[in-house]
Amino acid sequence: MAQSSNSTALFDVAAIKELKQARVAIVSTEWNESIVAALREGCLSQLNEFDVQLCYEVRVPGAVELTYACARLARLNQDPPEAIIAFGAVIRGGTPHFEYVCQSVTQGLTQLNTAGVIPVIFGVLTLDDEAQAWERLGGSHGHKGAEAALAALKMIALKRTLEMPATGWPGLIS
Q1: What CATH number should be reported for the domain holding residue 29?
Q2: Mean pLDDT, residues 119-136
Q3: Fewer beta carbons below 10 Å: N end or C end of the chain?
Q4: Residue 97 bears catalytic tag
Q5: How many independent structural domains does the chain possess?
Q6: Of 33, 97, 100, 115, which residue is the catalytic one?
Q7: What's the pLDDT at 13?
């Protein structure tokens, strides 16, 4: 898998090698379906390497709706996921709509992470054109779906460590 030059540390899997029975949910948009499908496929391929259970998969109409679905999944009382990956692709058009959508989804998912209930991984591509998507789906910029999966697993490991601090986490300053 190609990786972007800025993400080499992400591919250090030492912290997640021993991760057992991780549970991940994926929330994805219906817009730009072929791009989102490629994000999902790269993600699932990476999750399968670590024997992760995909416990929920939800589709929403567009990027703005990602926040609602992620919030609902994060607050499940029974069998909640340990991390949620939000996938979408927003392509710039000729109106300010692009900026509003990108700002909304970014702020919404950031607020969910700040709440600290469950890690929500930002897998939303914000693009000037469709060609940029394919550069990020196995091209010169790596595969953002696979990278989102690794980020989710690292956040699950971190969350578990913070719940049981005796196990330690590389880079955790105590």
Answers
A1: 3.40.50.960
A2: 97
A3: C
A4: yes
A5: 1
A6: 97
A7: 84
- Listed in order, strand segments (DSSP E) in 7-155 are 23-29, 53-60, 83-91, 120-127, 137-139, 142-143
Report the b/e string of 36-74 with b at 16+ CB within 10 A.
Answer: bebbbebbbebbeebebebbbebebeebbbbbebbbebb
> Is the Cα dihedral 140, 42, 124, 128 positive or negative?
positive
Name 47's Cβ contacts closer than 8 Å, sequence gap at least 6. 24, 54, 149, 152, 153
Strands 120-127 and 137-139: unpaired
Amino acid at 72: R
For residue 126, give both structure tokens.
């914000």
pLDDT exceeds 80 at position 8: no
Question: What is the residue type of 160?
Answer: R
Mean pLDDT, all residues of the chain: 91
Cα–Cα distance between 64 and 29 in angstroms, integer? Answer: 9
